[in-house]
Amino acid sequence: MADDKDVLRDVWFGRIPTCFTLYQDEITEREAEPFYLLLPRMSYLTLVTDKVKKHFLKVMKAEDIEEMWFDFEGTSLKWHYPIGLLFDLHASNTALPWSITVHFKNFPERDLLHCPSNSVIEAHFMSSIKEADALKHKSQVINDMQKKDHKQLWMGLQNDKFDQFWAMNRKLMEYPTEEGGFRYIPFRIYLTMSDRPFIQKLFRPISPDGHTHTLGDLLKEVYPVAIPNDDESKRYQVVIHGIEPLLETPLQWLSEHLSHPDNFLHISVIPVPSD
Amino acid sequence: MSVSLLWAVDVYGRVYSLSTGGQQWEQCHDAVLEFKRVTAVQQCCWGIACDHHIYLNVHSSDVPIRYQEETYENQRWNPKDNFSDHLLPSDRWHWSDITGLEHQPLDSFLLPSTNWEWEGDWYIDENFGGEPTEKGGWTYALDFPATYTKDKKWNSCVRRRRWIRYRRYKATDTWAKIPSEGHSGPLPDPFNDISCGGWEISEEPRGRLSLWAVSLQGKVWFREGIHHHSPEGEGWEEVSLPGEVVQISCGPGDLVWAVLWEGQLIVREGITRDCPQGSSWVVVDSPNPEAGAIHVAVGDNVVWAVTKDNKVWFRRGINSHNPCGSGWIGMVGEMVMVNVGLNDQVWGISCVDRAVYFRQGVTSSELSGKAWKAVNVPRDGDIRSHSSASISSLHSAGCFFSGEVQAQSVMSEDLDTEGGPQRAVLEVGACPSSPPPEPPPIDPDVPKPRIPKVTSDSFISEMLSDREVKQEGATAAKCPPPALVLSPSLSGGLGDPQWSNVDLEETQTHLAVGPAVVRGDSADTCSLSSVATYTLCQGEPYGADEHPLWAWVSGGGCGVNCHSQLNWFNSATALASSVQSMSLSISPAQTAAWRKQIFEQLSERSKREMDHFKHYEQAVEQSVWVKKGAMQWWRDWKPHKWVDVRFALEQFSGPEGNQDGILFLYYNFNEEKKYLHAFINEVTILVPVLNDSKHTFAVYTAERTKQRWPIRLAAATEVEMHDWLALLSVSCCDSRGIQGPPSKQAIWSVTCKGDIFVCEPSPSLEACPYPTPCDQMFWRQVGGHLRLVECNSLGVVWGVGYDHTAWVYTGYGGGFFQGLASSTDNIFTQTDVKCVYIYENQRWNPVTGYTNRGLPTDRYMWSDATGLQECTKANAKPPSPHWTWVADWTIDYGISGGTDREGWQYAADFPRSYHGHKTLKDFVRRRRWARKCKLTTTGPWQEVPPIPLSDVTIVLCGAQSSVEPIPLWAISNKGDVLCRLGVTLLTPAGTSWLHVGTDQPFKSISIGGANQVWAIARDGSAFYRGSVSSESPAGDCWYHIPCPERQKLQQVSVGRTSVYTVDQNGNLWFRQGLTPSYPQGSSWEHICNNVRKVSVGPLDQVWIIADKVQGSHSLSCGTVCHRLGVQPMEPKGQSWDYGIGGGWDHITVRGNSIEAPRVRMPSLTPSLTSSLTDPLRPPPPRSLLPVMITEMENGNAVRC
């Protein structure tokens, strides 16, 4: 049987085949060919689309170019969500490759944050990690790290270096054996059909009487609608990294193995496709 | 942690034990009598019953207590009768002991008590000094007493032979009465208190214990001669006293305190290994002048006392030099008694609620602990009635009950008549002058039993005096009215004996509270059954809110410490969890559906999202990643020293997308910047070398293994070193595409530091003629700490620690670096204990005798074994920062050569051979001091309690199905031969040990193909076990195999067919002439010398740990070597190939059953075949080193 470490690798090396097409209203000098790319699920859109930008700039005039942004079937894609989450949330039941439209105009100020440079992504990423560690270890682990350690986490993500990242990230995943888990599980639950961006609450991996909390326990507490009743058919899919873990999966294990590099467990709750 | 027991007695005299792995008090059901007090140690529990006699309960073990009786039959030759029983008048007895002084005919041997039984009849010992004798076991000599030989010579005038018979202690797990006999007849008065301990005073004889007892008149008695082979001891000896004693307490070591009637305390002084009962008493005042002491409890280094006002006191300043301590400290809590168990842990019984309390937070640095915490677990009676009730209720509910009312009426009709006698008994019990009844096997609630107010003693004494009354009550119960006769058949018919005990009145009272209680307990059962549940449930002896009342507790056998995880303090936790945590096989977590689902879905996802799109461009280009750091390097040129270097790992993607990297080491040489590099994919092993001054590790490549000169690096901190090691290990594994746990074929090895390494054998490792060179094998570390590890090709792996603890590999995960993405489910805490030794050296001079003033040329007066290093008590350190001291320095009497009473060994001069007594020619002496240290680490190993082992072996091949038993044999650290039952692929830990009888202790064992079992006895002789098969896993008898001439064998390893042994002088021997019909073979053939260990695998491949050879005067170090040229027709092979070393201690290749790919006749086309066996790397002509390389100077990556 495979080792749990293999899960981390599979998760890290998850790729989404994507087809980037330029938005039809963008003005080009000649026709823009679509651009195909394997996007790392763990990364951020604006961090891995330099090639896309370069590709489309070739057919555009410099004065027509503003900040690049993306949409999928009309939904603006938030770059500060991990790519895998965006895909699961918006496109998980569509045909591959994922078809993303590229814009260089009319930045949707209401929907998206600006991303002038990679340092903004880094700041966002690091603040997520810090928030997660505040939940997990009262920030003790992240605060004990040096600046270069923080950099190593970021560089690991940026350069897609599993070993580099995990050599440091493993420290964030440790916990005292006698406590059986983190203080709180850093998680966010995203709903496609809700106005709230996501649900986030304090939730412990172990119940007060010593039982292990599962994914089902979390949903029951936080978003019970997602759990099908006995007598009805399943209405929602609970998706993490493109898979649907069983509801009895221990939450602590999920947090250790299926968290994104920002140390959050990003859970998408999407309606079952009606076919 | 192995499971051990806490013992307690409740106020009714019932004895209970609570397992450290359990969650309920188990009643000791064979205690026919009520008990007053118990005192437990790990192997047994002593108690005083209400008849004031002492009883002993020896815990059963897989290895029985056996004692070998022996006697000698002596004969003299005369011309007429040849050898005959006619001896000269001046001769010894015809039957005598070994000295000939004692007359010992066979029928003079009697069992010491009824607790013993003979194992068989007398038989002749045909083994003489490791050699089989001629027929009849006779040994010959010129005359008595003389040197005997096994050969009859022309001048042999006398002969003798040894007869052996074993007796076995049979009264295990039961209370055996100890006759209260003194030296001169029965003791004058009965016993009142008892305390057992003293096992740390001396290991000689094995299992020695001190037992102190106090009689009603206040006299103190010491039980003599208690040890492993005499668990009952021999007799009582009175100890003189300054007053009358009421209670006594004896610790594991030399601490003994007692309480006097007047309330002072006395402390025993002069307890030594030669005089375990001590010599004199010193009086210590009571902590409180107004209220005298009534109770005392001592441990290793602590004394606790209770005064008459129930206050608890802790004695300050107790240590091995000052058994009296320096002052009292009042503690919180009011107790009737306290008890100090193992590790100085403290137990008490509160005078408020009579509950057992555990003192939390007692550590060696904080012996007084932090707080009292109540042990809150149910008794087995409570739980059993609950569970059986709910089970039976499910069956019975639908059949017999349709509702409460009817249930009641059914019962009242059927059982009405029964209430009479039951109540009669209860009334007797409630009568003020009578004791509460002993609980009948299934007991209804005892209404308001009397709770004694003072101590259990007075209560039980009272109980004793009232015993006649009670017996009347019992007789009354035994003569039931005719109506009761119906009840057995009735209950039999219903299939539930509890019914017969249902008491109507009780039922009704329970009805009021029943439903609420019951629904809380068994929420799952449906409402219908709950009706039945509570009606049955009232069979339980205690209501839910009534907690047991304890009178006495003893933790002397209870191996907990402040870190132990106990489930004793919260009865709400489910019983199931404790059961689960004890299971040794693959835990449900790995086989859980959720995990499977994740693995499956992830691979599905990869297929879906990536398989068809591999031609797409990657968003992130793979680039080079560099990690840099500062390190120190043990430089390559002389003078060797640590120099500061910059260190960098450059990682990049190899051509096939695999990770690869290069190590760079930048240094200055003559003001010039230089660097040294190593390719990650050429690194063969990373060895952490922790010593007390630096955090170092060694990096080997094949080239560096040949050179015996690794790159040695030191990091600034331990954390930094582990970061680097973790990263480098992952990089190395990545570059070689090695992932996950070791395969079943893996080769395991252990260094002298206890680090465990594993190597995945390549198919061409055993190829002939061009195997993979040994120095190219890639080793990675597995977590844990072991002395030896053994495996087989089915993936069963066992290990033995330095402290002889047996461990089983949990077969999953196995990440070495904590938290690095490896599953932690099968990673457990592992501890190991070993001793650090230093020597105290003295020289004799005519004026002052022996002093610590040596000659200027002498060694240090405190030194290591060689005398070259100064080692004092103060500056000696544990082997590495991972080890911590757990005890103080003690004199080691167990050193070879023997010692005198103070541990000294004498010699004419340093360094010479030492002996244990002083002679006129001796001018120097030394003694060895030992100090225990302990290592705590983690690894994929789980303990197999309780028997400590010295060797283990697992059958080479065989079982294929997951439930088929896998033969596994072991030698206990006492030399018993054991056979493990119930070992299968699913349960690699097995279930229990089967003891295999031997005439002498053993030290090495190996089981090869076709169930051939070979073993080596401690006297160096070899044995073959006959008729071992799957039907008879323990075989039937031992065949003695003569040793090679003048050699004592040390270790054996049996392959598919080959048998190899190593003797005490490092010679490797091959057994000639083995055939299926004569598996014992014919003779030993010498292969080579300088061998420490041998491991023969399922292909008959031979691997050894070779000792260093020349000029070694330090501790020997080992190198892994592989025998080349081993073929079916040539099992001895031709030459050695040298692998990783030195510092290796153990290797096992018994898992590697990968046959090399077949090649054509090598002699015809060597170059062609070589490229066939290993296309990537045509082996260069290797110059095999003619003799073992000297690794003295630079070879030891791991220095002993």
Automatic annotation (TrEMBL), chain A:
<keyword id="KW-0391">Immunity</keyword>
<feature type="domain" description="Autophagy protein ATG5 alpha-helical bundle region">
    <location>
        <begin position="120"/>
        <end position="174"/>
    </location>
</feature>
<dbReference type="GO" id="GO:0061908">
    <property type="term" value="C:phagophore"/>
</dbReference>
<dbReference type="GO" id="GO:0002376">
    <property type="term" value="P:immune system process"/>
</dbReference>
<dbReference type="GO" id="GO:0044233">
    <property type="term" value="C:mitochondria-associated endoplasmic reticulum membrane contact site"/>
</dbReference>
<dbReference type="GO" id="GO:0043069">
    <property type="term" value="P:negative regulation of programmed cell death"/>
</dbReference>
<keyword id="KW-0072">Autophagy</keyword>
<keyword id="KW-0472">Membrane</keyword>
<comment type="similarity">
    <text>Belongs to the ATG5 family.</text>
</comment>
<keyword id="KW-0832">Ubl conjugation</keyword>
<comment type="subunit">
    <text>Conjugated with ATG12.</text>
</comment>
<dbReference type="InterPro" id="IPR007239">
    <property type="entry name" value="Atg5"/>
</dbReference>
<dbReference type="GO" id="GO:0000422">
    <property type="term" value="P:autophagy of mitochondrion"/>
</dbReference>
<dbReference type="GO" id="GO:0034045">
    <property type="term" value="C:phagophore assembly site membrane"/>
</dbReference>
<dbReference type="GO" id="GO:0019776">
    <property type="term" value="F:Atg8-family ligase activity"/>
</dbReference>
<dbReference type="GO" id="GO:0034274">
    <property type="term" value="C:Atg12-Atg5-Atg16 complex"/>
</dbReference>
<dbReference type="InterPro" id="IPR048318">
    <property type="entry name" value="ATG5_UblB"/>
</dbReference>
<dbReference type="Pfam" id="PF04106">
    <property type="entry name" value="ATG5_UblB"/>
</dbReference>
<keyword id="KW-0963">Cytoplasm</keyword>
<dbReference type="GO" id="GO:0034727">
    <property type="term" value="P:piecemeal microautophagy of the nucleus"/>
</dbReference>
<dbReference type="Pfam" id="PF20638">
    <property type="entry name" value="ATG5_UblA"/>
</dbReference>
<feature type="domain" description="Autophagy protein ATG5 UblB">
    <location>
        <begin position="184"/>
        <end position="269"/>
    </location>
</feature>
From TrEMBL, chain B:
<dbReference type="InterPro" id="IPR006624">
    <property type="entry name" value="Beta-propeller_rpt_TECPR"/>
</dbReference>
<keyword id="KW-0446">Lipid-binding</keyword>
<feature type="domain" description="Peroxin/Ferlin">
    <location>
        <begin position="903"/>
        <end position="936"/>
    </location>
</feature>
<dbReference type="GO" id="GO:0006914">
    <property type="term" value="P:autophagy"/>
</dbReference>
<feature type="domain" description="Peroxin/Ferlin">
    <location>
        <begin position="831"/>
        <end position="892"/>
    </location>
</feature>
<keyword id="KW-0072">Autophagy</keyword>
<keyword id="KW-0472">Membrane</keyword>
<comment type="similarity">
    <text>Belongs to the TECPR1 family.</text>
</comment>
<dbReference type="InterPro" id="IPR010482">
    <property type="entry name" value="TECPR1-like_DysF"/>
</dbReference>
<dbReference type="GO" id="GO:0005765">
    <property type="term" value="C:lysosomal membrane"/>
</dbReference>
<feature type="region of interest" description="Disordered">
    <location>
        <begin position="430"/>
        <end position="449"/>
    </location>
</feature>
<dbReference type="InterPro" id="IPR051513">
    <property type="entry name" value="Tectonin_beta-prop"/>
</dbReference>
<dbReference type="Pfam" id="PF06462">
    <property type="entry name" value="Hyd_WA"/>
</dbReference>
<dbReference type="Pfam" id="PF06398">
    <property type="entry name" value="Pex24p"/>
</dbReference>
<dbReference type="GO" id="GO:0008289">
    <property type="term" value="F:lipid binding"/>
</dbReference>
<keyword id="KW-0458">Lysosome</keyword>
<dbReference type="Pfam" id="PF19193">
    <property type="entry name" value="Tectonin"/>
</dbReference>
<keyword id="KW-0677">Repeat</keyword>
<dbReference type="InterPro" id="IPR006614">
    <property type="entry name" value="Peroxin/Ferlin"/>
</dbReference>
<protein>
    <recommendedName>
        <fullName>Tectonin beta-propeller repeat-containing protein 1</fullName>
    </recommendedName>
</protein>
<dbReference type="GO" id="GO:0000421">
    <property type="term" value="C:autophagosome membrane"/>
</dbReference>
<keyword id="KW-0968">Cytoplasmic vesicle</keyword>
